[in-house]
Structures are given as structure tokens and as C-alpha cells.
Amino acid sequence: MPRAKFQTLTEQMFYILLCLREECYGMDILDKVPTITGGRVSVGSGTLYNLLEQFVAAGMIRETRVEGRRRSYILTDKGREALRREYERLRAQAEDYCLAFGEEEPR
Questions:
Q1: Per-residue pLDDT at 105
Q2: 3 pLDDT band (50/70/90 cuts)?
């Protein structure tokens, strides 16, 4: 059975949604993701705009402004909930790692 769309998020999806806690344009996201991840994660423009369309269709973000080709977006309650669920999933994985290796906190 295939899993539900956006049940879990890729790193790129997670950081795109994280950027959209505040209204931004697509180009802003392309700059913000590498900045907030210290260069560990980047998003290509094709991936970004494809995901933005999918997130809009799923009701996870909404378009807030259109200025020519520039469009800005912001997270919806549904998107905020998906981001929170992914955060909780990642935290649980980090806790499992700590338990497995007898560490108190993830490194």
C-alpha cells in the first residue's frame, strides 16, 4: 500500500515549509535554506517550484501575493501541523538513537 503524500517530509520539504512560517518569495527560499542549514541542504529551483505547487494543492501553504512572475507564500495551519509532525518524528528518531547508544543527548 503506498504511503499518504506528505506523511513524512524530505529535508528539502521540511526546510521549505520552515521558511514559510513567514511570508516569502520562492527566490527567498532558495537563499534561506542553505543559510539556515549552514550549507548542508540546498534546494534547486525546479524542485522548489514543483514542491510549492504541490504544497498549495495540498492546502499546506497559500499564495499571498503575485507581482508579475514573483509569487509569495505562507504556511497554513495544515502546513504548520505537517511541519510539527515531522519535527516530532525526527525527535523520536534522535531519542531512539540516544537510547540505543546510551547517550543522554544526540551529538
A1: 66
A2: low
Helix H, strand E, coil C: the string for the chain is CCCCCCCCCCHHHHHHHHHCCCCEEHHHHHHHHHHHCCCCCCCCHHHHHHHHHHHHHCCCEEEEEEECCEEEEEECHHHHHHHHHHHHHHHHHHHHHHHHHCCCCCC
pLDDT digits (tens, 9 = 90+) for 67-79: 998 999 999 999 9
Dihedral angle sign, alpha carbons of residues 21, 23, 26, 27: negative
User: What's at 60, amino acid-wise?
Assistant: M
Supply the Cα-derived Rg of the chain in whole angstroms: 15
76/63 Cα distance (integer angstroms): 10
Which domains are delineated in the chain? Answer: 11-76 (1.10.10.10)
